[in-house]
Amino acid sequence: MQHATDYQSKLVTAGEAVKVIESGHLVDYGTFANQVVELDKALANRKGELENVSIRSAARVYGPPMVVLVDPKRESFIFNSGHFTLIDRRIHDYGLCSYIPILFRECPSYAQFTRSNAAMIAVAPMDKHGFFNYGLSNTFTRNVLDMADRVIVEVNPKLPRVQGGNNESIHISEVDMVVEADWNVPPIPEMPITATDRKIAALIMNEIEDGACIQLGIGGMPNALGKLIAQSDLKDLGAHTEMLCDAYLDMWEAGKITGQRKTIDRGKMVFTFALGSRRLYDFLDNNPAAASYPVDYTNYPHIIAQNDKVISINGALEVDLYGQVAAESFGCRQISGTGGQVDFVEGAYLSKGGKAFICLPSTYQDKNGQLHSRIRPTLDPGTIVTTTRSTVMYLATEYGITNLKCKSTWERAESLIQLAHPDFHDELVAEAAKMNIWTRTNKKCAL
To answer: Tell me: the pLDDT tens digits for 299-315?
Structure first.
């Protein structure tokens, strides 16, 4: 009864809640699917009253924030994101979103450097014990709330209640204000699977053993791999990932994921955020098979490595002949973010029997239909290196897989050129020779 009384005493409208925001304040909006909606609308209504309010978020999934739409000159609100979705990218292209470079696993520790004036997050309804569950996004929420002057929760009965793990909820006694909402949690459309995705996935399938612990990034190729695993004779796979997507549900329903050979969190599908279909969200609601953890647990390499045979699958935009992976920008255009790629490449490498794969199609077409190689002699100026050449383990295209560990620069160049589209081989060989990373003993002569 006391919890209900506390709830009512803290219940306010969204408009009343955002009155605590002042000019110059720093406001956290939550991450992924626990970003606020009604509070965003209410804060946008204060455009013109406020100046220089800095807002932090990551991976927008509910459409452009209202604070951005009402303030195209960024006079009142400055929106920042630690990971770009298509929405973040589009508003960034218009100069209305700034990127925050991060290592995902480190995010919980960042809170100590930047205490916010208000943290506003969407949560599932309070339970009988007085706890609000974070739903689909655990990430570094607890740390942000701990380092905020005020905590405002936006309660939405349509958010699933996702079990921990740990640090998956906040108690009413720790909350300053409660706002009620009722918006739909948008399903994330499944990325289309191309013929190239299927070819790469088929190559990766040959590298997966019974009892492997799977981490999948986002994209068509991971989706293709999940479907192939679901149709395979593999058994007793585990799941330890940053993002839980529909591919895991496919593997679970096919009986391929049991988690029974995991060393830690046995029998649990471990993740820090989930994005996917309505079916996935329904699956996660109060399901003991899933465990939501903070990102400094899911993504810390030495924790990842406690499971054997970790298979990490992540994508890239481009790779140069030194083996540097660009997964977040084309030149100066921010496309995505560092995310957890580096975390899982390192964690899988440290795992006994583990393998970390960076996967990408060998080519792409520009808007004029011209074909370009994603394997480049060097990256264009401004392109961000996500995973360094010293860190990369396996790299895969539709033409094969290579392990770059312990390879010299000329051996790397040769291996990578073999993974490029044949139309670009001669050009890449000539460039490698100019770069002094080619020898007369290579399989193709430079002259």
So the answer is: 999 999 999 999 999 99
